[in-house]
Amino acid sequence: MLKKWLIFTGLILIMLIMTSCAQLGPFSDRGMQEEVIITKDDVPQEPDKESIVNELNSNKDNEIDDLIEANFPLMDVISNESNKAEIYATNQFDLTELSSVLTSAKKPKNESEVKDNQQILIYDDSFVTLKESEDDKDVLLLEVASDEFVRQNYSPSFLSTFFAMSLLNNTFGSNNWGCRSGNCYGGYTGKGYYPNGTPNRGGSIFRGGGPGSGK
Length: 215
What we know:
Number of helices: 7
Pfam families: DUF4247
Strand order of the largest sheet: 1-2-6-5-4-3
Strand content: 15-25%
Shape: globular
Structural class: alpha+beta
Largest sheet: 6 strands, antiparallel
Order of helices and strands: HHHEEHEEEEHHH
Protein name: DUF4247 domain-containing protein
Number of domains: 1
Number of strands: 6
């Protein structure tokens, strides 16, 4: 009787695990060390460059995260409690082009120089990092991180490469950084960083359809 009960319980557990796995997004089952590779072939089909520029310029009253969400494919999400960083991608622009388009559509509070093929734009509630994909130079990544995600997870030494520490402390209203050394976040690489060692990855999806769609 006990043996039959154990077998029955085991079957139920297996069914529950299989059901959970089936509901996960494309990136949700990646282990702590497994990489997310983003190449040109991984990026969903986009509108042409002119259409994207027109869409951005015609919705300048929207927040930068809504503009990016509505016009670029979402490839990955890294979250920590209620804070997150969303990773978008495009094949239509190089870094200089997209930086010019975004800053024209929505002027940032602060704009860094381009260093190591990446640039950071600071907005009221978001940090936008533009960088080439490490897997494919034809792909430009856009990382949109809430300012609280940045404060809690980013390495101050990484950010100080782009901005003075006094400016960063003023941006956050304090110098109370959540991560000062060790396994701090230094921008998206797809190499498996998870805040506090807890994986919480989102799937790939191109939302489109205007600012705020898909939220």
